[in-house]
């Protein structure tokens, strides 16, 4: 499922021109690698992975979490402490599922999104496209980015 989400996120980034902040490993660099390999955009010649969890999260407005382990938890904790909007795919397991379960108990963790959007994240068990559609809608609702 994560591979399918990476492909869908890559299409979203390419079609909307979103900026991706990422470390040397993880979903962010996978999205950028997929874009480089599949789309070969002439204006992208280099992707630099930022070292240090704080550097990855600090400039982001939205933090998208798929799966993850201890390093991902560090980024989630930093994102939360910095007031970032965290979007998780619970079906991907790991820290994403754990954060979603915590947010069920403490709704302040995702109070920036509607209850409907929050619940729909859990319903994306088999559909990367549905998850990315929700991501795009959340970005649109809170950032004003175009959404068709």
From TrEMBL:
Q: Which domain of life is it from?
A: Bacteria
Recorded hits in Gene3D superfamilies, A to Z, give: 3.40.50.450
The protein in question is named: Uncharacterized protein
